[in-house]
Write a structure and sequence with these properties.
two-stranded parallel ribbon; 2 strands; globular
């Protein structure tokens, strides 16, 4: 879950730069590795400036998807209600996931993982 801890102290560009460096390092060290790069998950009970910053981060890192070795997937909306709220059932502290939240995560990425493992 790279990037989420930097929301309070870095710009969207700075966070995206750090994530990009990690992706580049993985590609350098293991060029045959397929990377499923998830968007940084939303945080906070309601829409807030931190979420807006994360949207910017995600827009930047989405461009790392090359369809060959890096695949970007944004599942953040699956953790929120249609009106953008997060519930304690999914994120008890509006940041960390509950067991139900982890199940949502697993269910959301399973199809893509199965595709990448072919």
């Amino acid at each position: 879950m790279i990037g989420t801890n930097n929301v309070g102290g870095d710009t969207a560009e700075g966070i995206a730069k750090g994530i990009t460096k990690i992706v580049e390092t993985i590609r350098e060290k293991t060029p045959g590795t397929k990377i499923l790069l998830l968007a940084v998950f939303p945080r906070g009970e309601k829409p807030n400036p931190g979420r807006e910053k994360l949207k910017q981060v995600n827009q930047i890192i989405a461009k790392l998807d090359d369809g060959k070795s890096v695949f970007f997937l944004d599942i953040g909306d699956k953790f929120m209600t249609p009106d953008g709220l997060m519930t304690t059932e999914i994120t008890p502290d509006f940041l960390h996931l509950s067991a139900a939240g982890y199940q949502i995560w697993a269910d959301a990425i399973t199809p893509k993982l199965q595709d990448l493992m072919k």
